[in-house]
Amino acid sequence: MIAAAWITVALLLCAVAALGVKVILLRRGARELREGLRERLTEETNTLLTISTRDGELRRLADALNSELRKLRSERLRYQRGDRELREAVAGISHDLRTPLTAMIGYLELLQALPLSSDARRYTIHLEERTRAMKRLTQELLAYSAAASVPALRLQSVDLRRALEETLLAFYGAFESRGITPQLHLTERRVERQLDPDALSRVLGNILTNALRHGEGDLFVSLEENGTMTFSNTASGLDSVSVGRLFDRFYTVESGRGSSGLGLSIAKLLTEQMGGKIHASFLRDVSP
Prior knowledge:
This protein is mainly α. It has helices at 2-42, 56-112, 118-148, 160-170, 172-177, 197-214, 240-244, 263-273; strands at 156-159, 183-186, 192-195, 220-223, 229-232. A hairpin with a 5-residue loop joins strand 4 and strand 5. The chain is elongated and about 125 Å long.
């Protein structure tokens, strides 16, 4: 009787041990699926999910997930191919439009040198302004297509304070013509980052151009020791909704100002390609 009881206990212990091993293997398989799925969703890879467990249900789950991964990869490739073809088409059209637009501007300038009636002169001036705006749009479309193609960045050590000061100096004439004296608060400590100097110059230039276009005579620029740059100015034409869309492609606050809506989109694209972050916020009645 006692022997039979011990045998029963031993069998129960073996069953519990086997069940424990089964649970451990299932947990390991689930962890492998979770980690493998996260890796394949965040990285460019053609490998499929594999698991070490022989459990039939987990293997069927892995097969189902691999089937969905194949579909996702196919859709991603189709999107990338279509996006590349669209960028190439936009770049080609923009390039082809620049020459005739330049010629149109030249002929309009010659036309304005001739004796014209007041109405005719007004019409030619307006036509020249719109033609120049169209040329700017084609140039920015070309620049955006080039930036979106993710060219190889020439990363090197860049002194952020020096780069910011050089860009501000390049805008000195524009600031002076608008009566703007930027208020600067730049850290004295040397702040260096691995960046592409040309891309950084484009980012800073686009931000300052936007501030000039929509600002109202003030500009505050700061650089902190952690590398954070802040640009702030008064812009009564903006609100929280429009500020939230400033980095959207082709979004313009006022279409009549000749803006293409691509300058800040290019700035955001280049900033992210260099591993940085950029955003805009709206503060009501707050002075820097």
